[in-house]
Amino acid sequence: MERRKFLMLFGVGTLASYLPVAIAACSSLFKVDEAFGQSDGAVVAGTIADLDNAGQLYQDNTSIGSIAVIRSPDNPQKLLAVDPTCTHQGCTVDWDGDKKQFKCPCHGAKFSANGKVLKGPASSPLGTYKAKIQGNSVIVSKN
Ligand code: FES
């Protein structure tokens, strides 16, 4: 085999061997974009499996804000999504699945599953979002 032909075949072979890697890299980047934003301003907060395993989904600093998603204690088929930023002084509230309320670790405020104040010092409800299931994903958008 001529040297020139060998080098050309070697070059094509090398390019062909890297092509799947390049495609995989691009597709994984595409999935990251899909995971954090959708064209209509909604965001994917996670999967149903993640929600059911952890009992909640938290996403900080999405394009629509920080998000906490839970299943409604009254109707588990329904999802509730709130901004977990406490309205007192901005700490992040935690979901207590046993007591079915959000609790603020800083000064003890408590909020219902849909964000209403149950106990001060916070006086304003948590912000809320719309949440829905689409396929295996939990989609959250502004109200
Ligand atoms: S920041 Fe939540 S109760 Fe003070």
What is the CATH architecture annotation of the largest domain?
A: 3-layer Sandwich
What is the mean predicted local confidence, pLDDT? 82
Helical stretch tally: 2
Helix content: 25-40%
| Count of domains | 2
Number of strands: 10
Overall CATH class of the largest domain? Mainly Beta
Could you give the order of strands across the largest sheet? 1-10-9-4-3-2
Shape: elongated
Identify every distinct bound molecule in the structure, by name, code or SMILES: FE2/S2 (inorganic) cluster
Instruction: Tell me the CATH superfamily of the largest domain.
Output: Rieske [2Fe-2S] iron-sulphur domain
Extract low-pLDDT stretches: 18-37
User: What name is given to the CATH topology of the largest domain?
Assistant: Rieske Iron-sulfur Protein
Percentage of β-strand residues: 25-35%
State the end-to-end CA separation. 69 Å
Order of helices and strands: HEHEEEEEEEEE
Provide the structure class: alpha+beta
Sheet with the most strands, sense and barrel status: 6 strands, antiparallel
Report on the architecture of this protein.
The protein has 143 residues and is an alpha+beta fold. The protein folds into two domains: 1-36; 43-142, Rieske [2Fe-2S] iron-sulphur domain (Rieske Iron-sulfur Protein, 3-layer Sandwich), CATH 2.102.10.10. It contains two helices and ten strands; from the N terminus they run H-E-H-E-E-E-E-E-E-E-E-E. The chain has helices at residues 3-36, 48-54, and strands at 43-47, 57-62, 65-71, 79-82, 94-96, 101-103, 110-111, 117-119, 128-134, 137-142. A hairpin with a 4-residue loop joins strand 5 and strand 6. The N and C termini lie far apart (69 Å).
